[in-house]
Design goal:
Layout: E1 2-3, E2 9-10, H1 15-42, H2 44-71, E3 73-77, E4 81-88, E5 90-97, E6 103-108, H3 110-114, E7 117-123, E8 133-140, H4 141-151, E9 167-170, H5 184-202, H6 206-217, H7 222-249, E10 253-257, E11 260-265, E12 270-275, E13 280-287, H8 289-293, E14 296-303, E15 319-325, H9 326-337, H10 340-344, H11 352-379, H12 382-408, E16 411-414, E17 418-423, E18 428-434, E19 438-444, H13 447-452, E20 454-461, E21 467-474, H14 475-485
Pfam family, one: bPH_2
Keywords: Membrane, Transmembrane, Transmembrane helix
InterPro entries: UCP026631 (IPR014529), YdbS-like_PH (IPR005182)
């Protein structure tokens, strides 16, 4: 910490070393395929020399640029505001009132941890405004921890002092068994094959790879070879999903601190996210199909100003609990809400008309797709005709199954302080939303819904998804649900029915 005038301070001076090391690593990674691709034409020694010179040049430029950023950037934290200024070439001054600070996100990658620094992002909970947050990149790790706690401390924090430090949940390594049933498993398996082909191309070994596969599995039929490759991809995907779970959730803990929620996690990239209690509007219990089969679920928070996942993040920042046994997920959701009634509320099912509406749409979709293939088969080739009837046989029961699955997942209900909405096909979502956080209702009904006497009722809130729907509910039940959930909000728009 380097103090300047009037309480201004500079960022941590080790930012130059951190930037230099990162840029050098990236440049070296880019140089490898370059050297391998041109080594045979120009000579390995010459290419290594050119690559080394390029790495030094790029790293030097990045180091100088970051040094100038460090020298001309300062910040200060007063009793009223958090300010960051940059005064070189382009001048900027960003300021956030302390009483509007809603999130403090502390991130530290492996290189930053090596130098004992971290990046601190301070936000007001507004997602669209560029002036709604300031970033201190980097500051000392100890200073970042102090700021993280102090910036969200409120004058009324003594009311929750008794719960300070209470742990809501911590990592159980038994939860890792849910990682392979996530959608990342096939994605990682396919990515591994792509990586092998790309690396073999760099080393000009693609021919050797194909030869090896032919020698190993040359006696198999095409179907057998495909089965072997799919099995290999699944194995690689399972291993990758297990490793990804360890990297994301190592050291996970969820606790209360001055009444706020604090989540820490991460092996290589550590993250500490603090959510102010006044921002909480509810929770969402999410059950993807594979996880639900194993009677497990994850918990997402519903909070105002919750930012979306960045491209460099492996998991959504709103996820408070990874896939865990359903009883654990329900307990964590109840503790976050401060009420067991919301998670224990029995939801009301929707009319049978909602089921037949889904069945019809599923069958219409299959008919349209296979019908198009059949027409193309009549015009082009008999192969498409055979493909059309095969897909009709396979997709019809699948469409009916998904229709019943979607219908079973429908439901809505009311608790003392929360409304509950359940929906989803494949991935079932049960949202418990604070009734006082509902700012409006959207009532919609398509011509097909009106024929069946159904409406979709969406509770609008300034948090997370923005709206939480009760799909295909009966007209009277839907309007009654909305009117009872937030009395008076919908009443002026209702007419007495005969």
């Amino acid at each position: 910490m380097i103090a300047l005038e009037d309480g201004w301070q500079r960022l941590h001076p080790r930012t130059v070393q951190v930037t230099s090391l990162w840029v050098a690593g990236i440049a070296a990674g880019i140089a490898v395929p370059f050297v391998l691709g041109f080594a045979s034409a120009a000579g390995l020694g010459l290419m290594l020399l050119i690559a080394a010179g390029g790495i030094v040049l790029v790293t030097g430029i990045a180091a100088v640029a970051d040094l100038m950023r460090w020298r001309h950037t300062a910040y200060r934290v007063t009793d009223e505001r958090v300010e960051v200024r940059y005064s070189w070439v382009l001048h900027s001054h960003r300021s956030v009132p302390r009483d509007r600070v809603r999130t403090v996100d502390l991130v530290s990658d492996p290189v930053q941890r090596m130098f004992g620094v971290a990046k601190l992002k301070i936000g007001t909970g507004q997602q669209t405004s560029e002036s709604s947050h300031v970033t201190l990149d980097p500051v000392g790790k100890a200073e970042a921890e102090v700021l993280r706690r102090e910036l969200l401390r409120r004058a009324d924090s003594t009311e929750s002092a008794e719960s300070d430090g209470d742990e809501i949940s911590s990592l159980s390594w038994r939860w890792i068994r849910y990682a392979p049933v996530s959608v990342t498993t096939p994605i990682l398996g396919a990515a591994a094959f792509g990586a092998v082909m790309q690396v073999s191309e760099w080393f000009q070994l693609q021919g050797a790879v194909f030869t090896t596969v032919r020698d190993l599995f040359g006696g198999l039929s095409i179907i057998g070879l495909i089965a072997v490759l799919v099995a290999a991809a699944i194995v690689v995907g399972v291993i990758g999903s297990l490793g990804l779970f360890v990297e994301m959730w190592y050291g996970y803990s969820l606790r209360r601190e001055d009444g706020n929620l604090v989540m820490s996690r991460g092996l290589l990239n550590t993250r500490s996210l603090t959510l102010e209690r006044s921002r909480l509007r509810g929770v969402e219990v999410v059950e993807p199909l594979g996880v639900r089969v194993m009677r497990a679920a994850r918990v997402d928070v519903i909070a105002t100003g919750m930012r979306h996942r960045a491209e460099d993040e492996n998991t959504d920042p709103k996820t408070l609990l990874p896939a865990a046994p359903f009883d654990v997920a329900r307990r964590v959701a109840a503790e976050v809400l401060g009420s067991e009634a919301a998670t224990a509320t029995a939801v009301t099912g929707h009319p049978r008309a909602a089921l037949w509406r889904r069945v019809r749409w599923g069958l219409y979709s299959v008919l349209a797709f296979t019908g198009l293939l059949a027409v193309l088969g009549l015009l082009l080739t008999d192969v498409l005709l055979h493909l059309a009837w095969i897909l009709a046989v396979v997709l019809t029961p699948a469409a009916v199954f998904l229709a019943f699955e979607s219908y079973r997942n429908l439901g809505h209900g009311l608790a003392e302080k929360h409304l509950v909405a359940r929906f989803g096909v494949g991935s079932r979502r049960t949202a418990a939303l604070l009734r006082s956080g509902v700012i409006g209702w959207t009532i919609s009904s398509s011509p097909f819904q009106r024929r069946a006497g159904l409406v979709t009722v969406k509770a609008t809130t300034a948090a997370s998804r923005g709206a939480y729907p009760a799909y295909d509910v009966g007209l009277d039940d839907g309007l009654r649900f909305a009117d009872e959930a937030v009395p008076g909000l919908l009443t002026p728009f209702l007419e007495p029915r005969r």
